[in-house]
Design goal:
Helices cover 39% and strands 21% of the residues. By secondary structure, it is of the alpha/beta class. The strands form 6 sheets. The protein has a 7-stranded mixed sheet, with helices on both faces. The chain has a 6-stranded mixed sheet with strand order 11-10-9-12-13-21, with helices on both faces. Strands 7-8-22 form a 3-stranded antiparallel sheet. The termini are far apart. 51% of the residues are buried.
Amino acid sequence: MTEHTLTVAGVAVDTRHWIGGERVASAETFTDVSPIDGSVLGEISRGTEREAAAAVAAAKAAFPAWAATPRAERARILHAVADGVEKRIEDLAIVETTDNGALLRSHRRGVMPRVAHNFRFFADWLLTLDHEDFETRGHTNHVSWDPAGPSVLITPWNAPLMLSTWKVAPALAAGNTVVLKPAEWTPLTASLLADIAAEAGLPAGVLNVVQGYGSEIGDALTSHPDVRRISFTGSVPTAQRITASAATNLTPLSLELGGKSPLLVFADADLDLAVDLAVEQYDNAGQVCLAATRILVEVSVAEEFTRRFAEKAATIVQGDPRDEATDIGPNIHERQLEKIDGFVRRALDAGARAVIGGHRGDGQYYAPTLLTDVAQDSEIVQEEVFGPVLTLQTFTTEDEAVRLANDTRFGLAATLATGDRDRAERVTRQLVAGTVWVNCFFVRDLQAPFGGSRHSGVGREGGTWSFDFYCDLKNTVTAPKGWNDHG
């Protein structure tokens, strides 16, 4: 091992940036800490404007050749990256669990296989990407997707590698080069991805990984005049800063932001199903942007729903995410834990009642919490907590349910539990949300559009929508005459 390598459960991880096909160290470092037990994992190269400029320069230099690479060859390399991910699922799983505290069993069985699928899906979609030519007064219109250029991708800590590759895979498939900036709290699997991509034959400079804090490196990336696309997943305040930074160059943005999503439970719903859906919102210690954290229950079944919910939630096992029996692990960082507890303390002081939880546990663990007696205009109902904290409100009519569901500044997702198909269709049409789940939750298909409304984001990604964003669409109109054809 070298001074630039740390070891996580026997897996070696390089702590330097990956720029232009080479490892690059910074003069300064930052400390990476595991949320499981607070142990120091290692010191990570802390990028600045210098590393940002170098990464964009490498992406710019590599762009012409990668953009000119035939679709089939780009797809082949992306499949090779997927092969590399599948060979290292165990390594990726244990490193990510140690780094962000999510369940090891989920990483092994679901998340890391999904990472590989991200590359395979967009590689295959690229090969089918086409638009049927159409005629205008005898002229032929042909639509093409031209690679846009170097793309900056800034990703969050709650599902680091999966959400990174949700952006990296379509950007590379589109023919763009990439500068990936992972969250500073969870940088490790992005470094492993750089190794995997290089081993798969991805040319130098096509994927670059830089680590550091937003104010020190993020601003330099998002304001760079050679950057052609910026995709960000994270908080609204950070998105506002990125938008201002990108405005000077009019760089197109894709923003997937926070949520305060509702779960509407009608009296005609399968109540056991509804309870299961509600308890599922504690997944990943509540650190899921799509989580339905506002439970809205028809008043006639509210008491029974609450009783069953409390019983079901009591079976949740909270503890070390490396343990197969654990259901939810720790929250990511002491700072985040303090934020969660602050939300709950203020809500309780304002008159909310904790049906379950309402307090911190040991270390960086927060007890799964359900709060009732909360006002619609209260902070706990209106603002994203991003922890294992749910609120419960009641309604009497369908119109009231829709009004409460839509009454926040967000619009990322919504979940609906009802046994009435007509009601499901009526309510779904009225909900402000990028995704609506009916009698299910978290079913995602990469060919579907994904994104949010209002303060939950700008734009959509997935399937052709991803290529629409990462490419410059061109329409070529050709006249039927004027050719010097001589047989």
